[in-house]
Automatic annotation (TrEMBL):
Residues 351-432 form the tRNA-specific 2-thiouridylase MnmA-like C-terminal domain. Its EC number is 2.8.1.14. Transmembrane segments: none annotated. Keywords: ATP-binding, Disulfide bond, Nucleotide-binding, RNA-binding, Transferase, tRNA processing, tRNA-binding. This is tRNA-5-taurinomethyluridine 2-sulfurtransferase. CDD domains: MnmA_TRMU-like (cd01998). One of its GO terms (biological process) is tRNA processing. It comes from the Eukaryota. Catalyzes the 2-thiolation of uridine at the wobble position (U34) of mitochondrial tRNA(Lys), tRNA(Glu) and tRNA(Gln). Required for the formation of 5-taurinomethyl-2-thiouridine (tm5s2U) of mitochondrial tRNA(Lys), tRNA(Glu), and tRNA(Gln) at the wobble position. ATP is required to activate the C2 atom of the wobble base.
Length: 448
């Protein structure tokens, strides 16, 4: 017998807004003049020239060396990828200024008071600029980051969806709000904005149109995170390291004697730093306990803290005996998390989903229904699925598509980005819609 559920709507929690006026002892302003009339300086110290060039000139192939000198604003994070990108651009003969984007805002979390990750990143960025003879400016985009990325991401989580803040960060902040800031503070000064992303840009010499192409490292490829860029944004960007595997980038960093050549890659959601995801969500959405119910039997197995702490296919955080248990679906209206021990064996297709809210990088909807080598990623990583069927339609006047991939994906969930490819070219993206495509067994239970 199906489990009877009272149709009581869960209360909407209050979303906390970041307090930009509160003093944060992790914050300090670092900005230096990068005027062409003044010597290049970082914190008052004159910098030496940088005469390094890579042994293999092919390393400069994504730096547009034939167009040098371009005036390039380089997004410098303190990581090895952006540092090598800066070094290659300098070697290609471009005029570079480095910019560190300060978006850290978690001053309310006690576990970050004594260890501010962004300050360490900034110190490394300063050292890289000292080595490469590059001026460095710090740009405070904390409020823009909250309004354009964090706020939307938290709201999506509240609705039971699985957002990707890094996709929004690239289109709305790094190549959005930052470009607007450049236009306001340095009007007409820069020809390109460069970063250390693992992606490549191919340009049409006649029209100037740009294509986003997968990188030379399939594991590290970041076109998934860049699929929400517009044609206007892509035309003005450069990804100097995009055609290289990680090992080659490390070798270049060592060859250039960069101070962070051996530094580990950063992990996790960009705005969280050392804060745990569950702690962040608890801070901004609170807790709302509800039932954990087994799909097959309708048995209440325990209580969850709130449905927004769980995502489809998740095993951790359920704290149930007799597992392993997997999250099979969520009822966000009644605050129920459904689980199963037979996630991989229940007879429920996980190869179909519906997508809407498209962004096409070219600015024009491509003929996806007729592309022979159409492929799709539903998350960052190497895994990419051939599309066996792609059909456009409309729901309530909105352009949507039904997508079928060539095998099951165990973690499809609403809010995820589906990113489409024609061979190696990234065409753009859309968001996976409700109903909860990963909610195995729920239809069978409802009709039992």
């Amino acid at each position: 017998m199906a489990h009877a559920v009272a149709r009581t709507v869960a209360p909407k929690p209050t979303l906390k807004k970041w307090n930009s006026t509160r003093h944060h002892r992790c914050y300090r302003a670092h900005a230096v003049s990068s005027s062409a009339e003044e010597p290049v300086r970082v914190h008052g110290a004159s910098l030496p020239s940088f005469d390094w060039v890579p042994e293999d000139a092919a390393a400069l192939r994504l730096c547009e060396p034939a167009s040098a000198p371009l005036r390039v604003a380089v997004l410098l994070s303190g990581g090895v990828d952006s540092s090598v990108a800066l070094s290659l651009l300098q070697a290609a003969g471009h005029e570079c200024v480095a910019f560190y984007l300060q978006i850290w805002f978690q001053e309310d979390f006690r576990n970050t008071w004594d260890a501010c990750p962004w300050e360490e990143d900034l110190r490394v960025a300063e050292a890289v600029c000292a080595r490469t003879g590059t001026a460095l400016e710090t740009v405070a985009l904390t409020e823009a980051y909250w309004d354009l990325v964090v706020k939307d991401s938290v709201e999506e989580i509240r609705k039971g969806r699985t957002p990707n803040p890094d996709v929004l960060c690239n289109s709305r902040v790094k190549f959005g709000a930052f470009r607007e800031w450049l236009a306001k503070t340095h009007p007409g000064r820069f020809d390109r904005v460069a970063s250390g992303h693992y992606a490549a840009v191919e340009r049409d010499d006649v029209t100037g149109d740009a294509k986003l192409v997968m990188s030379g490292d399939s594991f590290k490829d970041q076109t998934y995170f860049l699929a929400d860029l517009s044609q206007e944004q892509l035309r003005s960007v450069m990804f100097p390291v995009g055609g290289m595997p990680k090992a080659e980038i490390r070798q270049l960093a060592q060859s250039a004697e960069l101070p962070n050549a051996g530094r580990k890659d950063s992990q996790g959601i960009c705005f969280l730093g050392k804060v745990k995801f569950s702690e962040f969500i608890a801070e901004h959405l609170g807790e709302m306990p509800g039932d954990i119910i087994e799909v097959e039997s309708g048995t209440v197995l325990g209580k969850h803290r709130a449905y927004w702490f769980h995502t489809i296919g998740q095993r951790s955080g359920l704290f149930l005996h007799g597992g392993p248990w997997y999250v099979a679906g969520k009822d966000c209206v009644n605050n129920i998390v459904y689980v199963t021990r037979d996630y991989y064996s229940l007879d429920k297709a996980r190869n179909k989903f519906t997508v809407a809210g498209f962004n096409w990088i070219s600015g024009v909807e491509p003929p996806l229904e007729s592309i022979e080598n159409l492929r799709v990623k539903v998350r960052h990583g190497e895994k990419i699925y051939p599309c066996t069927s792609f059909t456009f339609g409309a729901v309530n006047g909105e352009r949507v598509s039904d997508v079928v991939i060539d095998e099951d994906d165990q973690g499809l969930a609403p809010g995820q980005y589906a990113v489409f490819y024609d061979g190696e070219e990234c065409l753009g993206c859309g968001k996976i819609l409700e109903p909860n495509v990963g909610a195995i067994g729920l239809t069978r239970q409802a009709t039992a």
